[in-house]
Amino acid sequence: VQLQASGGGSVQAGDSRRLSCVTSGGTFNAYPMAWFRQAPGKGREFVAAITSSGDRTWYGDSVKGRFTISRDNAKNTVYLQMNRLKPEDTAGYYCAADRNAPVIGGKELVSVHTNEYDYWGKGTLVTVSS
After folding, report:
1. How far apart, in Å, are the Cα atoms of 20 and each of 3, 30, 41, 104, 121?
2. Of the candidates 2, 87, 102, 109, which lies 20 to 30 Å from 10 by C-alpha distance?
3. What share of the chain is helix, strand, coil (3-state, %, to 5)?
């Protein structure tokens, strides 16, 4: 399974940007997907996640209300719409897929932890200047 993230670049504070992550191989519509980010000198931080069907989403506190995760299973693609960007959003953004998310009570348990994700893209850099 390969994940290719794109859409990064340099923007001004307050701008919007949409990241995309195309997945090839595997069964995309069976995988919960997530975005993480890593700023220089810091650990990888959870940004957002979405169930395999796209019916539920989760967000990190620092991006809640500004970022939106979505997916198009027909295109094997997950998106991250980022609005009202801040300089502290500057980071490499990584998409990830979980091939073994447990299902309890008919609902997928989607993780916010990096070690639960099996496949990773190489990341795309977003730089936000003030």
Report:
1. 10, 18, 24, 29, 11
2. 2
3. 5, 50, 45
The phi, psi pair for 42, rounded to 5°, reads -125, 165
91 residue type, one letter: A
Q: What is the pLDDT of residue 60?
A: 98
Contact predicate 49/91, CB 8 Å: no
Q: Which helix (H) or strand (E) holds 18?
A: strand 17-24
Rg over alpha carbons for the chain, rounded to the nearest Å, is: 14
> Amino acid identity of 127?
T
- Of 50, 48, 49, 4, the closest CA to residue 23 belongs to 4
- Taking alpha carbons only, the member of 64, 67, 62, 65 closest to residue 7 is 67
Q: Measured between alpha carbons, how far is 10 from 25 in angstroms, rounded to an integer? A: 30
What DSSP assignment string belongs to 31-49?
S-EEEEEE-TTS-EEEEEE
pLDDT band at 34 (very low <50, low <70, confident <90, very high): very high
